[in-house]
Design goal:
The structure is a single chain. The protein is mainly α and about 90 residues long. Helices cover about 85% and strands about 0% of the residues.
């Protein structure tokens, strides 16, 4: 599976946010600011998980349909992955 540039950019942005939080910790910044940034990171990760599952789901459904199969199993697996990610 190839992932589009957008997903890679999301992960690079998250990586930068994590580095920023590490810097905040080293500087001894207020915990409220750190928690705010960690919450933003968690939200970004959750959205990235959704984007990865969504792009894979689309491709997997197309493959199942091309093979003459029902995409129900693939959809169920995607839903289970989303549930597990939370």
């Amino acid at each position: 599976m190839e992932y589009d540039k957008g997903i890679k950019n999301r992960l690079k942005r998250i990586e930068g946010q994590v580095r920023g939080v590490l810097g905040m910790l080293e500087e001894g910044q207020d915990c409220r600011e750190i928690v705010t940034q960690l919450t933003a990171i968690r939200t970004a990760v959750d959205r990235t998980v959704g984007a990865v599952i969504g792009s894979n789901l689309e491709q997997c459904i197309q493959e199942e349909l091309e093979q003459g199969n029902s995409p129900d199993k693939v959809i169920k697996e995607a839903v289970e992955m989303l549930v597990k990610s939370r």
